[in-house]
Structures are given as structure tokens and as C-alpha cells.
Amino acid sequence: MSAPSRQGPTQAHNFLQSLNPAQLQAVQHDPNIPLQILAGPGSGKTKVLTSRIAHLIIHHLLPPSSICAVTFTKKTANEMRERLTKLIGKERTSQVRMGTFHALCALYLRKHALHVGIKGNFTICDTEEGKKIISSLLKERKDYMVSNDIEIQPGNLQSKISKFKARGLSAEDVLTMTPAVHPNEHNTVLVLDRLIAELYSGYQGKLKKNNSLDFDDLLVVGLKLFSGHRKAVSWCRHILVDEFQDTNFTQYELMRAIGVARRVTIVGDPDQSIYGWRAAEVANLEKMQRHFPGTEQIFLEQNYRSTGSILKLSLAIVSQDKNRIPKTLLSSHPSGITPVLRQCNNESHEASFIAMEIKRVMAHMGGALRWGDFAVLLRFNALSRAIESALQKEGIPHRILGGHRFFERLEIKDILAYLQLVDNSSFGPAFTRAVNVPSRGIGEKTLGELFTGADAMVITPLELVERICDAKVPDIKPAVKRKLSPFVAAIRCLREETNKGVLPSALIRKLLKLIDYQEHLHKTQPEWETRWENVQELITFASDVQGSMLTDVHLPPGEEAEYTPLRLFLQASMLSSEGDEQNEEGNLNKVSISTCHAAKGLEWPVVIIPAAEEGTFPFHRSEDIAEERRLLYVACTRAKGLLYLLNVAERKIAGNLMERSLSYFVSHVIKEDETVLTLDDLCTFPKGERTTLCQVLERPEPPEEEVRMRVEGFYESARNRRPFGHEFDAEAASITRAMQQHSFGPARHEIEAKFIPVSQIDVKPDIKPTVHPLRPFSSGVSVGPDVKPRIKQDPDIMSAAFLHRPKPLSNSNVEIKPYIVSISDVKTSGSRLDATRPLAVASSSRDVKSSQARTSKRSSRSYSLSHKAKLDPDILDLSLSSPPPPLKAKQPIKPKPMIIDLTEPAPKRVNPRTTIKREVATPSVVKIEGAEAGTAVEREPSMIILDPPTSIRHKGPSKVTVEPGRLPVAPAPKESSPGTPQTPSLNPGVKRRLGMGRIVGGYANKKFKLPT
To answer: Which family does the entry's similarity section mention (predicted)?
Structure first.
């Protein structure tokens, strides 16, 4: 002990000097007095825990093996172990008993199995195998359930049983609580309660028969061990528990049983209690003060993760709960960029916005952010479908946290089934799986006979098939023996290798050769190469476990004898969450999609929370509104620098399109303080905000030239293709405004566009009408500074084609573009996107009708009332136009002079912070005079003249007047002259089929005769 004490003051000074006053007080707190550290998100609780352990060892001279540190996840345990190694060295760190409650109980149960009536080689039954056992029990009771009109889903019953165990109720307890039901009983509630109790008892009987424990049993039986056999925990002189607010009854009692010396330190945050649905009890914080008198509390309120504006919003949300423990959070960073509240039309629009906003933010940050810096946090997994599709469409790499767990994959479970049988021949689920891998023609009927025969002989199914292959069972068909022989040979070979001490990685390689598993995958799985790579990854995992076999929870020398390498490997496999992200390096640079629950304890620079709506936050099936509010709080506090809350006007729920309203949690915050959120406006990342964000993330600021190149590349890409899944999208307008005012663009200026009736445009006869690749149904022309086609449907919606940076108007080089009637007045101010909406119009009636169908249901961007934005009734409709006339021979055409006069003041700016309601802008008065009125601007001889009109309707008068609030409409056509080309007439007895096109040269139409 003398050596540590001599080095103690120096080492203590090195890590204590980096703590803030509250953290230092928690670390140096008297170990003999129970302590509650109430730590908010991002307050450095992991740092405090590891520093306190180091302080107990260095200053108070506690042996490392006498300290127990219990974490909520294996990831946190690994992080603490790495930090502690830097403070006290690898040797002493390896002696600290550190891990999850499940890992701690599993290891000590193997050592002291006989004290609790189990075998040391028990198998941990995972969720999937447990559900199969329950399914078999329900199948046995099917007739009884049908006669009593009862239906039970295996997953629901499994959850019910899990809650029983979390509350400390055994199967015997539940049977005692539910009286026996009379055969003629018609009370469905009583029948159901008794049935659940009997199924619970049957489930536990099956587990015992298979010599297995499920995850909840590890805690229940572990509590029985630690409570009834004090020797099992006599080594503990101080216990530290992380995420204490999420502990259930059984876990709390485990803490009491291990911390019998009253030397207890817990870390928790009641504002982050989000597992009530899993029987977690936030009241355990109060219970501890009763069971451990004199408990003291220390608050950690300095946040080192999020910007001030993110914390302001988060606290405003959680503070709506008047029953919470009053506490605050102080950010160590500047206020930063205000969180954005964005309303979308529907879930597809929402998903498209997420994909494009990720790309836009990455471009404006000039390489300072990567894909892995973004997270999309969902209330439930079903919301991910449209988002995954949008990310995939945009080529954005992404991963699903908690989605496809490594050890739940088919190929991994196949290999583990063989190894589980080698270690525990009683485990029936492993036998059922392995006996037919590769396929040996053992059907359900044969399997049933094997299990029935084994029960009759009071042996395991594996023992029975071994006897069959040894010809010790009479009356067995030779075909059955022939099928089972390769399986038995493989098991016996692996068993011999295990007895020799062969490590798990070598056992797996041996097994792959014995059953030719690669060929089996090739024959049965279309994506067999990927599955084979996963098998290789399992070998890597086995090698890693071999190198640190007892690091989950340290056992002193002499206690490891009960643990074979195979047994510990199987235990590590079952207790690993998501395979501990086996290929973590490959996942670092992918956008994360996660539920809010799974995101607990994680953080990202940019967080996007879709579906911030009633019915989602709070969830419509949740009974605890306060916990739902805390869940949204947890999701918001995962963000470091940027936070988005999204909601939609309508969303499909169970196949039905339903209107949605903003979550009360959010709308209430807006009413209380309008400054906590920015409504719709997106940040354009001027240099100041970009610098601040880089400082928050502790990353170097990218060079200006790099940012310029990436931003221009993003907008160039946006110009060349439709980035969204809908023809009319508000995001096109947003990106346009961002493009017009990002820090590298030209000076801000007004843009004028002048409408010219098509009838006044002289067209070169050799130029054929063309179709714009994005908007083939547009009509009309525009004169302006490189104005591109776009469609106007409502003030917030326009096509993605309007993605071209405007240039100052030049009278000396006017260019006439076809296919658009456009009026726009763009003004920008500040660092946020301006709410001014460019105006544009032109489409055929077909597209107008389809857009009306879309926009008629779309609510405006108003969070105080529902307002429907309607189409202007005077949108130019050319659907009845005749087909284009045949082109004449090329001949010189003399340009006609014309007058173009356009005045359009800037639309009124609406401040969303002053009023949440949005106003719909309307176009100003536009007067256009034809050529006969004089000449104000003459076209240069070098001007470009494109595309003739597609309809003779445009051959009307050249004077058009547009009143306020109305859009230009072409005049009614005159009677055609004898020289005007006519539309090809149809035979009265011929009718065109709908959708078959016009009858023109080069386009054959199907015809049918009308009945005579």
C-alpha cells in the first residue's frame, strides 16, 4: 500500500485539477456517506465516476478489487475502463469489478450456481429464443384460448413476464395472486389473469428444463444469491451505480444487497428517466434516501455538450413538468444557432427535407462535418421507412442503431447454436436450430418425435440422437440415422476440441469446415457473401474476447476455475448489445437513425427529430405524459450544435391519411417564449456562425476556399436534377434563397422579370419546340437575369427547377427563355433565409388539378390555426390547346420592337417571432404593353429567340393587364384565319382513348369504332 500512497498526491493533482467545483466536490466526497450525484446531460458524469474511483484507490487506499462500478450499458463500462486506465494504470483498472448488472450477476452465478439451485453451465436465453418458447406454450393452449375468446401475442406475454420479474414477482407469486378459475367461469378478466399466471409458470419450467436463464432471470437469481449468501459480496467496500433513475425494483435491491456497508455512490438525473414502460422507477432516488439515512446530494449543472440555445429549448420543454426536482443547466458554449422548427406537408416531404438539409449543412460547413455527425432520432421505429428511402435515394450512408443486431443474424445464431450445444446439451432451442444446419431433411414431425422420446427417456434430445447413431435405440429407420450421423459427428468433434482447451476462434473455424457452412450459405442465401463476412467477424470477436476474457467484471485469482473459454465467449456474445457494433470503424461515417430511447447516453453535432406532433410526442398509447416529455428532452439534449424539430400537416397512420398538429410540448414552449425556436428559416452559415459551431465541436475551421467550392458544388448539383420526391416543394424555395445569399454569392440585389405574351415573340422557323427536362408542361416566356423555369402552386411551394443563382439585370444582353410565366422579387437580409417567396406560374390543367389535390390538404406554415393555401383561379390553363402547327421553311424574320414595363415592390416581410401565423404573399400589379404601343427596349440582333408557341391561343392581342393579387392570363383566342394551320380533325366514328396522346405525325394512336 505504501507505493500507491507515495504516488497518490501527484496523481490526484493531475486529474483533480481539470474538474469544476461541483465535480471536485463529488469526487472528494466522504466515501462513508451515501451520495447522490444528480447530473444533467453533458455534465461530465462519466468523468466524475472514473475520477471518484481513482480517488478512492489513490487517496483512500481502497483495494481496486473491493470497488464495484455498475453501468447501464457495456459501452459506458468500456469507456470508463479506458479513462480509468489513463488515471491509475491498466493493472489496477483490471481489478475493479466493472460492468452491467447482467454481466455482474452472470459471472457470480456461474461461480456460486449450487447455492441457488442451478448448474454452472447454464445458457443465457435471448429474447428471440424466449419468444419461441412462449409461442410453443400458446400453441398448446390454443383450443382453450379460442373457447374463451382470448388472443395473446407472444411478444406481449414476454413483455408482461419481464415486468413481473422486474418487480420481483416470481411465477409462484403470480399464481398465488390469481385464484384458480372454475371450468364454467365466464369472467374473461379472471380467466385471462389465471392463464397468464399459468403461462408464466410454464415458461419458467421450460427454461429450467433447458438449463437456461433469460436476461431478467440473471437479475432475479442474482439477487437471490447476493441476498442469501453474504460471502458472495463480502469483497465489496464501495459500489457506484450509473443511470440510477432507470433502475427497476430488482436492480435497486441488487444495489442494496451489494452495498450493504452503506458505502454507495449513485449518478442519476430524474429528468432523463425514460424507461417506465420497462418497469424502471424514478422513485428509487427517493427510496434510497429512506433506506440510506444521511444521503447527500450534489448537483452537476454545467453542460459541456450543447450550445446555449439548445439547452434553453430543452429546459423549456422539461420545465413544463411542475413536479420535477428544480434544477437548471448552464452551457459552457455560446448561444449558437437557434434550433429550427420546420413544418412539412407529409412524411415523404419530411424525409426529403432531412436528406437535402444534411447535404446542405455539410456543404456550408466545408468539410468540418461528416455523415457520422448527423442523427435522426425517432419516437418509434416505424417512422424510419420514408427517411431510410430518402437517404438511400440521395446516396447518403446511414445505419440503424438497434435495428439489425449482430448476434441476432441468422448466420451468427447458426454457429452459436452448435457451440451452445457443446457447452450445454440440455438447451433445446439450440438443438432445434443446429440439427438442420445445413439442411438434413429433419422435419417438424421428426423433431417432435425426438423431443417426445427424449422426455419419455428423461434425457436430452442431443443424448437421444447420439444413442440413435450408436444403434442403442431400437426400431429406428436407417434413413433417420443416416441424416443424423453428420450432426452427431460434428458435435462430438467440437466437444473433444473443447476438452483439449481449444479457444473459441479455433472452434468456429473447425465447425465451418465440418459442416461446410460456406457452401450452405451459397446454396440458401442470395446475399451469402455478406453473411459469410459476418461469420468472419464473429471469429474476430472471439479472438478479441480471448485477449480480455475476464474484463467485463473482474474476478480475483482462484475464482476463474469455473469458467471455460467457450463458456465465457458464449456469455459475452449473449450480453453484447448489437455485437458492440463489431465493425465500429465502418459505422463512424454514417448518418445514425435511432429511436430516442436507444440514443440515451449518445451525442451528435447535428440532431434531427421528425414527427414532433400530437400522437407521437406524447405517444398515443403512453399513459405517462411526464415521461414522454422527458423523452423529448433527452432527444433534444443529444445535439451539440444544431437541432431540428420537424412536424407535418398530414401523415399516414395505419394506411389512413390523417391531419397532424404540432406537439403540445413544443407549441406551449413557443407561446411562453418565441425566441427558443426559429420557425422554418434555415441558417445560411455565415462565417461567424460557422466559426462558433467549429469551436463548439472543437474542430478546426475549414478554409474559405474549401467552403466556397463545396457550397457551389452543392447548388450546382441541385440545379441539374430534382432533389426532392415531389413536383412542388417548399425546400426548393428555401434552397434557392440560401443560394442567393450564401456568403460567397454576389451582392444582394433585386431581380426583375418581365412578362411578354408569346404572341409577340418572333420565332426562328428552324428551332423546334423543346420540352424542359424538369417541367415539360410549362408555358410562356420570361425576360430576366437568367431566370429558369419554375411552377407556382402556393406561396410556399415551387419546383426544384428554380435553383439557379440570379445575376444582375443587364439591358444590353436580354435573353428570352421559354416555358415560364415568372414574376419574382428577391430580397435578403441577415444570416437567415428570407421569408420572401418568389412567384411563378404556368402549367397545364392536368398538373394544376394534381397540384390542387396536393395543396388542398396542405396547411399553411401556421402553428396557431389551420389555414389552407389555395391556388389562384386564374392560372394559365393551356390544356385545351391544339397541337403545335407544322413548321414553315426557314426564312429571315425582322424583330419587332416592344415595350416592357414592370414595377413590383418587395412583398411585406412577416416576422415569425411576432406572430406565428404566416401570411400568403400575392403578386403585385403588372402592366405589359405590346409592340404597337411604342418601343422602350429593343431586342438586339444577337438576341436568342427560342421555341414557338405551342398553341394558337397565344395569337391574340398583345396587351395584358394583371390586377393586384392576380396572375397573368393569356387573352382568349380569336377566330383562326384561313391561313392558320388547323388541328387535324377526327373522323366522327373514331374516338381517342384517354391518355393515348394527340393524333400527330410520328405518334400512333389506338382507335376503336363507335357503335352504329
So the answer is: Belongs to the helicase family. UvrD subfamily.
In this prediction, what percent of the chain has a pLDDT beyond 70? 66
* CATH tag, 310-397+589-702: 3.40.50.300
Rounded to an integer, what is the distance from CA 1012 to the centroid of its chain? Answer: 63
Contact 446/479 with Cβ under 8 angstroms? Answer: no
Prediction pTM value:
0.68
Determine whether the annotation assigns residue 39 to a binding site. yes
C-alpha cell at 425: 446439451
Strand arrangement, sheet containing 781-783: 754-755, 781-783, 816-818
625: pLDDT strictly greater than 60 = yes
CA 98/CA 555 separation, integer angstroms: 10
C-alpha cell at 270: 430524474
CATH superfamily label, 406-580: PCRA; domain 4 (1.10.486.10)
CATH superfamily, domain at 2-118+217-300: P-loop containing nucleotide triphosphate hydrolases (3.40.50.300)
For 866, phi then psi, to 5°, come to -100, 120
Grid cell, residue 945, equals 429567340
Higher-scoring residue by pLDDT: 592, 930 = 592
Is 713 annotated in some ligand binding site? no
What is the rounded distance in angstroms from the CA atom of residue 629 to the CA atom of residue 282? 14
Residue 557 marked as a ligand binder: no
Q: Minimal CA–CA distance to 548: which of 576, 562, 568, 574?
A: 568
- Tell me whether residue 542 is annotated as binding: no
- 42 in a labelled binding site: yes
Is 903 annotated in a binding site? The answer is: no
Q: Above 50 in pLDDT, residue 743?
A: no
The reply to whether 438 sits in an annotated binding site is no
d(CA 702, CA 287) in angstroms, rounded, equals 51
Grid coordinates given for 433: 436450430
In the chain, CATH 3.40.50.300 covers: 2-118+217-300, 310-397+589-702
Under 8 Å between Cβ of 50 and 86:
no
pLDDT digits (tens, 9 = 90+) for 234-282: 899 999 999 999 999 999 999 999 987 789 999 999 999 888 877 778 8
pLDDT tens track for 277-331 = 777 788 899 999 999 999 999 999 999 999 999 999 999 999 998 888 888 889 9
